[in-house]
Specification:
The structure is a homodimer of 332-residue chains.
Chain A: H1 3-10, E1 13-23, E2 26-30, E3 36-38, E4 47-49, E5 53-57, E6 60-67, E7 76-79, H2 99-105, E8 110-114, H3 139-145, H4 174-180, H5 189-203, E9 206-211, H6 213-224, E10 229-235, H7 245-251, E11 256-260, H8 268-286, E12 291-295, H9 314-329
Parallel strand pairs in A: 7-8, 7-9, 9-10, 10-11, 11-12
Antiparallel strand pairs in A: 1-6, 2-5, 3-4, 6-8
Helix pairs in contact in A: 5-6
């Protein structure tokens, strides 16, 4: 990006198109459901609601913003974590520009996704179509799992909350983050990977930037469809598959970046997830693959939570990631 | 819009910012729920899931795109219908530019919303927080309710479907539309109006463009917060409240536009909804208010369905609406 282009980008971005669409999934048909009498709009009388019929299920939602003058050959595709949606990559909970915007400013076309059964991807009746119930994330659980502070530090009263020392997540945005959380199912890995593979086949190769459960999915997806992933960024992945030598060789040409925040040692679940991801990373390196570890605390950047794209240094981390993608994947 | 600006807009739009946020709702706390053991990510072991705790519920999601050079004093805010989300206003199901894009091209800042319990607004556990179950829309119901064709014209097999003669909805996009549909609750009118009123108070006055159930809500909202609505477009509203003489006087200065497609006589539910909306419109006029009827068939535009923002003439109708807003609300 030249200096003059930087000046332009500070005045906004010139957008060529905004497309959204759903991809993947299948039609399922329900039979023998009882008919209901329900009021469905306004204060009118009840009308018959018939659940029998056909539904789309298993689709993923994508929003694709194209720049007038993209500076890179491939778009960045964002894949959010569990209990979240594409909103992860939009404005931060305290109202600063999100990574969607920052990557547009960096000259990338950007695809933001809502995973299967979350947000605009929609969800299906259970137990009729899904065979398990959803899981919900409480404010208390997000406080602990996003490593904002010790469990004992969460209180209903905002002023009484005690985060970890040096915490960079903007505490005034905590309730706004809680408003973003969505229900999720825990048994839909294959359905989700199928839909995202269909999405990747539709939009072509991407730089895939993933978070948390999306990182778990990303590390599985690169094994499924290595030809569609130009680089893979996994931010705080919630686990990783075992990487065999043969698999490592298949993906050895794809640059991988692993990003970790602070306070991992304070939350046992994250110690375990990190161990699995570290094993993947080490195996990848041992077998000749490209992987970069962006361990923020060991680089002197302390205080990041599980959601660095929302922390007070989110723009700085976005720049580290986008510059790594550009540097690692540019053709000579 | 001058000719030179039109030329610029054909090359895209210059965007100053994309902000998204949730507004409204409240925190509720669940107690005494049984703890569950569930696998929540990857193929790892089960972990304890504790539903007890605090949730945000009742919030609305908004996505606000600001132009570098907005040509109008107030943004357009879009409010979708039942079983749908803000995706209504994005790309059409057959991949043409949606009304979000067309209104940006027309020089308006644009706010797209996902209503309470739909899409990115999220939804809450039932029966624990919501006291009723959701309703789901089948492909068969949307075929009939969106007035694509007679009930008997729907078939699983795409090639066998028989739409109304002259139907403008792009039939090759029907399954893509079905993929957009989301569950909804039928008992949350007050919760929804509360959240949207909070949203309007946050963003300031808007031109409110509504569809279907969103039209029912819009006609209630203008009575709640007339100071926050510069003009109101109700596209195929699913009903209307009774408008008293006193209420009509309070909103008489606000231009209203009612938009209707074709085939109303073929679907009894829509004859009833239209009758209620016509009564609102006639009362508004009788008491000195401003209302315009854009009855597409009587203007010689035949074949529009219940979703004119997706039909093959969606850009033409967007232009009729945006030009009406500009003409009716411009300050001399």
């Amino acid at each position: 990006m030249s200096i003059s282009q930087t000046a332009v980008s500070r005045a906004g971005v010139s957008v060529a198109s905004i497309d959204s669409f759903h991809v993947g999934g299948e039609v399922v048909k329900l039979h023998d459901q009882p008919k209901l009498q329900m009021r469905v709009a306004g204060k009118g009388v009840a009308r018959e609601v018939d659940l029998n019929g056909s539904y789309m299920t298993g689709q993923v939602y994508a929003n694709h913003v194209r720049l007038n003058q993209s500076e890179h050959d491939f778009p960045v595709m964002f894949w959010h974590g569990g209990a979240m949606t594409g909103v992860t990559w939009e404005s931060t909970p305290d109202g600063r520009p999100g990574w969607q915007w920052l990557f547009l400013e960096a000259g990338y076309d950007v695809i933001v996704t809502d995973a299967v059964e979350r947000g605009r991807a929609s969800w299906s009746p259970y137990p009729q179509i899904y065979n398990t119930p959803p899981v919900f994330r409480t404010k208390e659980e997000s406080w602990a799992m996003y490593r904002f502070g010790p469990k004992s530090g969460y209180h209903d009263d905002v002023a009484s909350r005690v985060p970890f020392v040096g915490q960079r997540f903007p505490m005034k945005g905590f309730d706004a983050l809680a408003a973003q959380l969505v229900p999720r199912w825990t048994t839909h890995d294959d359905m989700t990977l199928d839909a995202y593979e269909a999405l990747l086949r539709k939009v072509g190769p991407v730089h895939l930037v993933t978070h948390s459960q999306g990182g778990w999915f990303g590390l599985n997806m690169v094994l499924r469809a290595p030809e569609l992933i130009k680089s893979l960024v996994v931010i705080e992945p919630a686990g990783a598959p075992h990487l065999s030598k043969d698999d490592a060789k298949r993906i050895a040409h794809i640059p991988h970046m692993f990003v970790w925040g602070d306070y991992i040692e304070d939350v046992p679940a994250w110690k375990n997830y990190r161990q699995a991801a570290d094993e993947f990373m080490i195996n990848l390196k041992d077998y000749g693959g490209q992987s970069e570890l962006l361990d923020l605390p060991s680089q002197g950047i302390r205080g990041n939570s599980h959601v660095p794209m929302m922390d007070d240094n989110s723009a700085e981390i976005a720049a580290l990631v986008s510059e790594w993608i550009t540097r690692t994947t540019k053709t000579a």
